[in-house]
Amino acid sequence: MNTELSPVLIRPTTEEDWENLKTIRLAALLDSPTAFGLSYATAATYTDEQWRERASPQTHPQFFLALRQGQAMGLIGGAENVSGEYNLIAMWIRPQDRGMGIASRLVNAIKARAIELGHRRIVLSVSPDNADAVRMYRRQGFTFLPEWEPLASQPGVSVQKMEWRSDR
């Protein structure tokens, strides 16, 4: 019996990934409701067609999946905001798959995409109390900014902005 794990593939979503995107996104929203600007209650009402649109590579944000044998283990999104900043959003790894370097690979995919699109800076919002996420983002070269905002899905939760610059 082969006990080796099959490789993890990191790639942008396509419309055909809509069910994987739906499954992993809803799991993330259930697992960590105070980590995302979107609520589970809202996302659970999306139609299959809306999930197909979200998975499309032409849609913003653009999502990337971490896949093993066709099953999503994690996701990350990237999009330009109204101010022209490139945002890292929706970062999440299934609890049983954490600690395997998948998060770093997903962040690297978003960094590469941002640079490909002409951005040299990426911003994200995170709760400073989310120690594991903060540690991983710091290892990836992100630093805290003195900017706070209420989390859209949980107005009682404040998140702080972090940034990464490609010139560091």
Note down, in words, how this protein is organized:
- Helix content is 30%, strand content 33%.
- By secondary structure, it is of the alpha+beta class.
- The protein has a single domain (9-165), classed as Gcn5-related N-acetyltransferase (GNAT) (Aminopeptidase, 3-Layer(aba) Sandwich), CATH 3.40.630.
- The chain has a 7-stranded mixed beta sheet with strand order 1-2-3-4-5-7-6, sandwiched between helices.
- Strand 3 (71-80) and strand 4 form a beta hairpin.
- Helix 1 crosses helix 3 (48-55).
Topology diagram in text:
Layout: E1 9-12, H1 18-31, H2 40-43, H3 48-55, E2 62-68, E3 71-80, E4 86-93, H4 102-116, E5 121-126, H5 131-139, E6 143-151, E7 154-165
Parallel strand pairs: 4-5
Antiparallel strand pairs: 1-2, 2-3, 3-4, 5-7, 6-7
Helix pairs in contact: 1-3
Number of helices: 5
The CATH homologous superfamily is named: Gcn5-related N-acetyltransferase (GNAT)
Kindly name the structural category. alpha+beta
- Spatial arrangement of strands, main beta sheet: 1-2-3-4-5-7-6
Strand content: 25-35%
CATH architecture: 3-Layer(aba) Sandwich
As for the number of domains, it is: 1
What is the helix fraction of residues, given as a range? Answer: 25-40%
Global morphology: globular
Quaternary structure of the protein: single chain
The arrangement of helices and strands along the chain is EHHHEEEHEHEE
CATH topology: Aminopeptidase
Poorly predicted spans = none
Radius of gyration: 16 Å
Q: How many DSSP E strands?
A: 7
- On the 0 to 100 scale, the average pLDDT is 93
Main pleated-sheet profile = 7 strands, mixed
| Terminal CA distance | 46 Å
Name of the top-level CATH class: Alpha Beta
